[in-house]
């Protein structure tokens, strides 16, 4: 093996295998807990956590800077933006700073428990999947902390999308996923939606491109601290996005 090949091999061994991108906005009460839980549940995994904060006014960035000092700036990376610029662009911003061959996207509000991360990684290794997505809608999956109306709204929206789009995945709007880096780059460049429709478009376009998708059952837990960012405008946006995907994919 030549000197350059040796350097390349050492570089691959040293850099993280997994980049975990966590967008935040006003998550001061949650961000330290989610980081702690990721480290707890991935003790033998080489990973980095890239936190994309959109100018939170509640002091979220101050907490993240403390986490950088605690865990190391090579393990926890604050990559801030000046203001809220959308979920899709947050992932794209994080991806620019990611060094792993695989990218995990997850929420900071504890609705996505890091205890499922080993299952995502194991499923990808076993199947060679391009995408592993968490699902609330198969055996052993579920939702905790939602009232009946929100459960019915979520289920109805998912059934409607399943019927119209035939996406090849049971949970379209979930945002707890593991991607091969190259696949995520390809899909993000193809997607035009913003907000909650973005997750649905990612899966629909992945299916149309014949990417291999696997699922892991998860229990989604409603946020413990902070205020939900889902409102009426997001529901209207979802319906508009559904029509757009029906026409264009």
UniProtKB/TrEMBL annotation:
Spell out the GO cellular component terms annotated for this protein, sorted alphabetically and separated by semicolons.
endoplasmic reticulum
Task: State the protein's purpose.
Answer: Transfers mannose from GDP-mannose to dolichol monophosphate to form dolichol phosphate mannose (Dol-P-Man) which is the mannosyl donor in pathways leading to N-glycosylation, glycosyl phosphatidylinositol membrane anchoring, and O-mannosylation of proteins.
List the GO molecular function terms.
dolichyl-phosphate beta-D-mannosyltransferase activity
Q: Which family does it belong to?
A: Belongs to the glycosyltransferase 2 family.
Name assigned to this protein = Dolichol-phosphate mannosyltransferase subunit 1
> Gene name on record?
LOC100830714
The residue ranges of the Glycosyltransferase 2-like domain are 19-187
Q: In which pathway does it act?
A: Protein modification; protein glycosylation
Protein's cellular compartments: Endoplasmic reticulum
SUPFAM superfamilies xref list? Nucleotide-diphospho-sugar transferases
* Summary of subunit composition and partner proteins: Component of the dolichol-phosphate mannose (DPM) synthase complex.
Alphabetical keyword list: Endoplasmic reticulum, Glycosyltransferase, Transferase
Q: What is its EC number?
A: 2.4.1.83
InterPro entries attached here?
DPM1-like, Glyco_trans_2-like, Nucleotide-diphossugar_trans
